[in-house]
């Protein structure tokens, strides 16, 4: 019986690096132009007024203002409403 009994226990013991997805700026908070609002895989959120979507589905602000989340016809939209000073 010249074999190692516990061999191969670490074969599937790996994990991937987390991608830090999710909402970065919440509703009611201020955002500057260029700020990332949501990092996502696919379109969980859609860009509304004052926002745009990057090629990796990241939603970012195009104007400075207050972030709002609304649901319209079953789709969730993120908007940045400009504040008038």
Provide a descriptive summary of the structure in words.
The protein has strands at 22-23, 30-31, 36-39, 45-47, 51-53, 59-61, 65-72, 75-82. With 85 residues, it is mostly beta strands. The protein has a single domain (22-82), classed as RNA polymerase II/Efflux pump adaptor protein, barrel-sandwich hybrid domain (OB fold (Dihydrolipoamide Acetyltransferase, E2P), Beta Barrel). The mean pLDDT is 91.
Number of domains: 1
User: Terminal Cα separation, in Å?
Assistant: 82 Å
Biggest sheet architecture: 4 strands, antiparallel
Number of helices: 0
Output the helix-strand order. EEEEEEEE
CATH topology: OB fold (Dihydrolipoamide Acetyltransferase, E2P)
Report mean pLDDT, rounded to a whole number: 91
What is the β-strand count?
A: 8
Give the CATH H-level superfamily. Answer: RNA polymerase II/Efflux pump adaptor protein, barrel-sandwich hybrid domain
**Unreliably modeled segments:** none
Corresponding CATH architecture = Beta Barrel
Please state the structural category.
mainly beta
Which range does the strand content fall in? 35-45%
CATH class: Mainly Beta
Shape: elongated
Helix content bin: under 10%
Specify Rg, calculated over alpha carbons: 21 Å
């Amino acid at each position: 019986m010249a074999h190692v009994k516990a061999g191969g226990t670490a074969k599937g013991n790996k994990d991937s690096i987390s991608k830090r997805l999710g909402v970065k700026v919440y509703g009611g908070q201020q955002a500057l132009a260029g700020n990332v609002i949501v990092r996502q895989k696919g379109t969980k959120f859609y860009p509304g007024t004052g926002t745009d979507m990057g090629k990796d589905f990241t939603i970012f602000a195009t104007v400075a203002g207050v972030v709002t989340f609304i649901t319209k016809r079953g789709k969730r939209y993120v908007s940045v409403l400009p504040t008038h000073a």
